[in-house]
Structure prediction request, 477 residues.
Amino acid sequence: MSDSTAIRRGEPLLRLAAVHKRFGTHEVLSGIDLRVSAGEVVAIIGPSGSGKSTLLRCINQLEPPTEGRVLLGGVAVEAGQELSRAELTQLRRSVGMVFQSFNLFPHLTVLRNVSLAQERVIGRSRKEADAVSMQLLSRVGLADKAQQYPGRCSGGQQQRIAIARALALDPKLMLFDEPTSALDPELGLEVLAVMRELAENGMTMIVVTHEMHFAESVSDRVIVMADGRIIEEGPSAEVMRNPKTERAKRFLQAVNDR
Amino acid sequence: MTELFGFWWEWLPTLLSGLQLSLAVTAVALLFGIPLGLILALGVQSKRAVWHVLSLFIIETGRGAPALILLQFTYFGLPSAGIALSSFVSASLALAWCTGAYTSEIIRAGLDAVPHGQKEAAAAIGLTDWDALYFVILPLALRVSVPPLFGFAILMLQASSLCFAIALPELVSQAYVIGSNTFQYMQILLLAGLLYAVICIPATIAVAALEARLGRHTD
Prediction:
């Protein structure tokens, strides 16, 4: 499954150049430059309202940037550019996303949640899609929940199902938007374990998180955001232990004091 | 008392044929009106100005004008534009218009009740807008909309009594005819009212049960 990503490990996969996002007059992102290579795990930390979630949404065009350029796997999207349906589908196929509130489809079985896009977006047969979905559900340890409805599953299980759903189209890049923030610590652990396994298998990941231990131990690089800018970035241990900027120091101090 | 029952028994078949027609015109109005309501609900949210304005016009006229005016417009008004319709077709058209206008609001409320996260998740996994609507948003929206839609259907059956004004021989028209022949208006209208109640009260109870049932698997 991770063959294609493993082969190209280290090659540039994603580049953001001068990305701005404004909602009306409110500027949420003020010029983001970011490069991510295949196989890299990048953690984004920072205070609420610093633009972390919006940054993720700009990468897969859930929120189209107001200015700047997003390059993904050699395909560039300029701000303001009207994407064709095919281009948008291609983009969404190559980027999987996991949300803080899981956002599973409550009226569909767990299996159908994972199979739906495979059938509708890449034209797999129902049988084929279900077989792939069962493999993915086994991978996240939930094959026995296939016929249940998401509402019958715990939060941790729902988030693991959401990860399986995001993996279903073989994405090159996985975005995680505070995947454990809605979970109690124990349930968060089972989600982090799945993410750790993904990282070890060479998946390129960008993770917005408040889990400092995860950021330090799993990610290759940490990015600190504040007020719509990247204020600090570097190897995880370095940024977490010896932040250079005042703002990053203050944030990390606050997190560590909890 | 036995006199009353005897009178009722005599005229019950006539009223039942009227009731049948009331149900038929209501069914046709709903059959066309509810899909129209869905189209209008989507049309109002459309970014294309033409769709937005056209939908808004149909909704505002349908809700703004009393149903009686819509009925008279389609039956007495349209012939002057060269379109002469039978009373059944006019009634169906007017009530479908009214149904479309009101149910568009019910359906829109259902669409709005779908959490934004569901739309985001559908987009993030690459579904087209139509697929997202068909597989995710509509099924969730209809769970919210179906009970009030059935409630509206019950109201519509009662509103179909207005069709007596355009000479459609439905339940109330039949009751009036019988009343004017026998001068026993009170007795026959009472029976007509009972017939509406026999349908509407169980239907209301069924809607409440349905509402409870649809509440499952929604979170």
User: Anything to note?
Assistant: Residues 2-45 of chain B form the longest helix (44 residues).
